[in-house]
């Protein structure tokens, strides 16, 4: 072919000297310059990009979760539902991403593991914020962030807010009176299940048509927790496949710690009610 196709003839903008380009808008020079492997191991790039993309998705998850809580507080439930559905899909995306990381063998990982020092996802402040907003709150997890006052402040501020589940319970309370101990609990502490809450959610599930919004809210929360559990399970399985039962770079027992985390119930009564239904 003598005349190569020129998209400019179809109107494509080809000159960006004085206008904002795709890369400018997305600040790609910042994003794509942020990968600095510490070794010459081929797989370190995969490891870095997998973590960075996960953090970007977590950033979006937080953006949606904050807005979902706000929507629930201001009675804009359908907006809140839409955002919760999106957060579940974000976790689905994160779940699929493990397939890429699983192509890294234990031998590949040992080539650069020492270069990570003591750094670990355990110190991901966005992951901790997600847990805190959902209601899995443990003030001991603030400690690794003490060296970064702006991050510590973010985490502290979240612990002072009612969690997403607290907000869901205040909505439940409008139809089924819940005990003061539930409504005025210490927000910094982890939420623990209570029988009156299970009974109230059970009534919602016994008559979904009569309590449709609460029913829909509950199912959205369960749906999200389902994806979140899969993320934890995929993580621990990938970790076992790559490092076996070695301690984590962050210093925990590794797989033993992550298995303990599989027991976490974010919205406990929503799971418990199913047995008695
Ligand atoms: C080779 C791949 C990976 C290995 C071997 C690994 C290993 C571990 C281990 C052993 C822990 C426990 C803490 C410690 O002692 O270090 C941990 C925690 C964690 N990792 Fe990974 N990880 C991997 C990939 C990822 C990826 C891709 C992410 C995505 C951001 C991630 C996020 C986290 C988070 C958020 C925690 C804290 C979990 C909690 O406290 O419940 N990890 N990881």
Provide a brief overview of the structure:
This protein has 277 residues and is mainly alpha-helical. 59% of the residues lie in helices and 0% in strands. α6 packs parallel to α7 (149-159).
**Strand and helix order:** HHHHHHHHHHHHH
The average pLDDT is 97
Number of domains: 1
C-alpha Rg (nearest Å):
23 Å
Bound molecules: protoporphyrin IX containing FE
Helix amount: 55-70%
Please give the largest β-sheet: none
> CATH class, please?
Mainly Alpha
Write the CATH architecture name: Up-down Bundle
Kindly name the structural category. Answer: mainly alpha
Q: Classify the beta-strand content into a percent band.
A: under 5%
Q: Give the termini distance in whole angstroms.
A: 71 Å
- The CATH topology comes to Methane Monooxygenase Hydroxylase, Chain G, domain 1
Number of helices: 13
Count of extended strands: 0
User: Are there runs of 5+ residues with pLDDT below 50, and where?
Assistant: none
Q: Which of globular, elongated, flat, extended, rod-shaped describes the shape?
A: globular
Task: Describe the 3D structure.
This protein is mainly alpha-helical and 277 residues long. The protein has one domain: Methane Monooxygenase Hydroxylase, Chain G, domain 1. Helix content is 59%, strand content 0%. The chain is built from 13 helices and no strands. The structure holds protoporphyrin IX containing FE. Residues 50-51, 54, 101, 109, 120-122, 124, 127, 235, 238-239, 242-243, 248-252, 254, 257-258, 261 line the site of protoporphyrin IX containing FE (HEM).
């Amino acid at each position: 072919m003598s005349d190569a196709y020129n998209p400019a003839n179809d109107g494509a903008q080809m000159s960006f000297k004085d206008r904002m380009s795709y890369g400018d808008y997305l600040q790609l020079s910042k994003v794509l310059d942020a990968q600095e492997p510490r070794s010459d191991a081929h797989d370190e790039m995969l490891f870095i990009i997998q973590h960075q993309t996960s953090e970007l998705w977590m950033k979006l998850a937080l953006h949606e979760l904050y807005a979902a809580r706000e929507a629930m507080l201001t009675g804009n439930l359908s907006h809140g539902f839409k955002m919760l559905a999106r957060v579940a899909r974000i976790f689905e995306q994160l779940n699929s991403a493990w397939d890429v990381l699983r192509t890294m063998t234990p031998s590949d990982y040992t080539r650069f593991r020492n270069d990570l020092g003591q750094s670990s996802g355990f110190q991901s402040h966005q992951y901790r914020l997600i847990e805190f907003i959902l209601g899995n709150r443990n003030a001991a997890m603030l400690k690794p962030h003490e060296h970064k006052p702006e991050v510590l402040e973010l985490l502290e501020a979240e612990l002072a807010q009612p969690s997403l589940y607290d907000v869901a319970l205040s909505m439940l309370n409008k139809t089924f009176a819940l005990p003061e101990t539930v409504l005025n609990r210490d927000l910094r502490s982890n939420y623990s299940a209570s029988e009156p809450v299970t009974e109230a959610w059970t009534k919602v599930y016994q008559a979904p048509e009569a309590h449709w919004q609460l029913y829909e809210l509950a199912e959205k929360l369960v749906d999200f927790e389902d994806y979140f559990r899969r993320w934890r399970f995929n993580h621990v399985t990938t970790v076992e496949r790559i490092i076996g039962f070695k301690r984590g770079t962050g210093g925990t027992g590794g797989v033993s710690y992550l298995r303990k985390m599989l027991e976490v119930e974010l919205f406990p009564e929503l799971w418990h009610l199913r047995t008695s239904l």
